[in-house]
Amino acid sequence: MVREKLPEIMMPERNPDCPKCNAKMEPGFLPDSTYGGIVAPTWVVGSPTKNWLGVVTMKGKTLYPVATYRCQKCGYLESYAAIQDTAPGN
Ligand SMILES: [Zn+2]
Q: Smallest Cα–Cα separation from 56: which of 46, 66, 65?
């Protein structure tokens, strides 16, 4: 049995400054709700492809776990899809 591997969220080396007001930004993420729970968000290269059942498949796609920073002053959100991982076949 092949267990589905979820990418780890990797934060950039240092917290970015807010592009709007230059205040400090704090790391976090925008969770994706799925059947049975919440997973870390991912950004996928290319357009979605569907299998013969019409279900979107991630097979062969390159995944980038997404980290989102929030400005502590103005609330601006900025997302980074920084570190690459590869989807398991399914
Ligand atoms: Zn700001």
A: 46
| Span from the CA of 70 to the centroid of ligand 1 (angstroms) | 8
Give me 53's structure tokens: 């059942």
Task: Mark the residues whose beta carbon lies below 5 A from ion ligand 1.
Answer: 18, 20-21, 23, 71, 73-74, 76
Sole residue written with tokens 């995944």: 63
Tokens, residue 50: 């569907």
User: How many domains is the chain partitioned into structurally?
Assistant: 1
pLDDT tens per residue across all 90 residues of the chain: 455 555 565 555 678 899 999 999 999 988 887 778 888 888 888 888 888 888 888 888 888 888 899 999 999 999 988 755 555 655
Give residue 66 CA to ligand 1 midpoint distance, Å.
Answer: 20
Ligand 1 centroid – CA 25 distance (Å):
8
Domain boundaries, position 1: 1-90
